[in-house]
Amino acid sequence: MNEITKIKNEVKLKQWAEKIAPTVLPKTQLGKAFEHAFKTREFLGNYFKDGDCAISNNAAENAIRPFTVGHKNWLFSDTPKVREQVLISTVS
Q1: What is the C-alpha R_g of the chain?
Q2: Per-residue DSSP letter, 22
Q3: Distance CA 32, CA 23 (A)
Q4: Most buried residue, 17, 26, 29, 39, by most Cβ within 10 Å?
């Protein structure tokens, strides 16, 4: 997708959202979604500028999970030998 198409899509979405938002009740899930989108509009624009941006950070969270779980285990281990085993199992 070229740069002009990306900008056009962003403008179309913005126009559509501004048109529909006043007709949506603010306390509904959709109303809350519109409110959030308008508050974070400048950041949401990054998804139009770079189509490779991941909307979810699940990949990053899954990558660091072994270290955070290992850290919790290490905190509650009572001997240096156990801590060493937990560290080795976390890293490998």
Answers
A1: 22
A2: G
A3: 13
A4: 17
- Left (φ > 0), alpha (ψ -120 to 50) or beta: where does 68 sit? alpha
Q: How many CA atoms lie within 13 A of 24 on its CB side?
A: 16
Q: Which residue has the tokens 């899509």?
A: 9
pLDDT, tens digit, 9 for 90 and up, residues 10-53: 788 788 888 998 999 999 999 998 898 888 887 777 776 776 77
Residue with tokens 């403008």: 11
Nearest CA to 34 out of 13, 54, 61 is that of: 13
SS3 50: coil
